[in-house]
Amino acid sequence: MRDFADRLPHPMVSATQQTQRIRRRKARSAGTVRKREGRAHGTPAFPVHPAGYDTTAADAKPVAVKK
């Protein structure tokens, strides 16, 4: 008679390792249609700064000064 280990399809791994594998697999497959569409046609244009944005704010992009 064969050992029990011979009947296992894959060796057992830790719960953490298994969870990480599952999360990676789900991230790859999640939104594949949307991701494919984005790669094929690009992402939609959107304003970097919405209307009413303060250009003097601390996080504002510096304005290039022409010389």
Reconstruct the topology from this structure:
Layout: H1 4-7, H2 15-29, H3 32-41
Beta-strand content bin: under 5%
The number of distinct helices, counting runs of at least 4 residues, comes to 3
Helix content: 40-55%
Q: What is the β-strand count?
A: 0
**What are the low-pLDDT stretches, counting only 5+ consecutive residues below 50?**
none
Biggest sheet architecture:
none
Tag the structure with descriptive keywords.
3 helices; 67 residues; mainly alpha
Question: Would you write up a description of this structure?
Answer:
- The chain contains three helices and no strands.
- By secondary structure, it is an all-alpha fold.
- Helix content is 43%, strand content 0%.
- The chain has helices at 4-7, 15-29, 32-41.
- It is elongated.
- It has a domain at 13-41.
Characterize this entry briefly.
The protein is mainly alpha-helical and 67 residues long. 43% of the residues lie in helices and 0% in strands. It has a domain at 13-41.
